[in-house]
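Lecture notes, unit on protein representations.

Consider one protein chain, 340 amino acids long.
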Amino acid sequence: MTENNREDGFIEYLQIKTVQPTPDYASCTAYLQRQALDAGFEFRAIDIILNSHTDVVPVFEASWTHPPFGAHRDMKIVGQAYLEAMRQLKGAVRRTVHAVFVPDEEIGGHDGMAKFVESAEFRQLNAGFALDEGMANPNEALRVFYGERAPCWIRFVARGNTGHGSQFIEDTAAEKLLPVIEHMMTFRSEQLQVFRRPRADGSPSRWATASVGFDIRMTPTLDYLRFRRSMEQLAAEHSVEIEFVQFWDDNTMTDTSAESGFWVAFERVLEARQVPFAREIFPAATDSRYLRRAGVPALGVTPLVNAPILLHDHNEYVTEKQFVDAIGFYTDVVSALANA
């Protein structure tokens, strides 16, 4: 494939509107199948997984300088760079490399990677290692994510006395929530996370129920089940109900020591390319958590350095040079992993 053709392919991929909540997965699937056929790839492989997701978050076009689907703005660089690297490596690797394009990552991956890792097709892959998306870095170091903060969405619901707004009603729903909120704010401060303080809805003397929600991203060094029990105890102590809207119970991290042959192969590529890097915990949740729980070590890497962090932002973009550089990066990395 010529340089112009590969860039045209990237542009075509960007233009497919896989935006939530109504992504055009049919057109996306047709494009990916055509790419695989053109390159002579098989649709089923084993050993190494190159994972990326095809959906994107909603956009507000009025806030964009250029049309968001005009092929100038997006983060599909990872998936397309995988394809171009595989074209160059066809027949030159010992292991089979499987490019996986999953839906619905932006809304939790429950109907995407979560179901895929439970399928017979996944079990047949015999996957031993995976690459997934990472994050840009305004500095020169490549960010390599070996774990991530797991989602824990909690809703506390209090029920209390009600009455006319002119009266001082005791034991109200909102009053019950106040110590819960204070506890959560203390925990948040301890975790050095700065967010806006949530407030209970409604007047303390008018409403019979009040609720407050918290979006918590649990670091993998935390005992998730113990933390859940502490939240349940907090609710019981203050006579409020608790609902775990979303909760993740696995904190598996990828081995980045000399004991891991795949990590050693990956690190040697960075050293050969003279790329400084930083091992990090991803600040949010990605599809890597499903792979790690399924027993497949995964690293989250997006080769965008000296680049602003624009994911989910207005005017998100990648340059042509960044795309070309990403192809070279993944060609070297995939070659090393697939021949390790």
